[in-house]
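Researcher: Good morning. I'm working through a list of sequences from a screen, and I'd like to move beyond sequence-only analysis. For each chain I'm collecting a predicted structure so we can compare shapes side by side. This is the next one on the list. No need for commentary yet; just the structure.
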Amino acid sequence: MRGGAPARRDGPTGAAGPLRTAETETETETESEGMAETGTEGMAEAGAVVEPGSGAAPDRAVVRDALGVGVAVGLSGFAFGVTSAGAGLSALQTCALSLLVFTGASQFALVGALAGGGNPFTAAAGAFFLGTRNAFYGLRLSQLLALPRFVRPFAAHWVIDETAAVSLAQSSRRAARIGFTVTGLTLYMLWNLTTLLGALGAEAIGDTDAWGLDAAGPAVFLALLAPMLRTTTERAVAGIAVVLGLGFLPVLPAGVPVLVAALAAPAVLWLQGRRTGAGRKGARR
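Model: Good morning. Structure tokens for this chain:
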């Protein structure tokens, strides 16, 4: 035989080939895992919705927080029932407002204006415009929750301050859906139950201001809002809104000071835009 046996090469099909291939696959998997982890962290830092399994808050913690908000605010429906009955509305009318309107600020504004002798149409208009803020919540929540279309009309009835605050505070879509559902369900049931009890027991309770029940809802909402005011612009808007709302409260009808306070946001953004534009012109010179 010429040249003897063929030389054994350590190529892809030789002895060392499988070892090198295994090492290459291991390095590739390690790099892929590192890129996946980095990508997930980047999405979280950028504020993107991170799906379950990538650091989302435990479901139990979300349910606990949602129940706390729902129970705390739901009990203030008792104050609304008493206030509405004191304004001259029947128990049926009072319960119908909570069942069909289900937005505490607008309901209190309506019965407050009626109790002060205001025109029913003016009171209803003020309550309507006060409730339009829920439409802006809905624009944000529709993207965050991404609910099926046949569910959205029913979920829209629960788009209020508290459900929006709890949902937006979550780090994943699953947690946001749980927070929205638990908060909405708990609050809707308790709010309507306590409204009925308040309307029926209005004579026994007397003045709700003496019990402080009328402050329960706003206090909880402020507690949810405060941690979200992180930038100077947001704090400036909140501070000016408080000044406008309290300043016009004694001179304007119920519900209107809140609408005036909403002007704080465009005013601050306009001033910020002017400063930015002036700074750019100065830099060019």
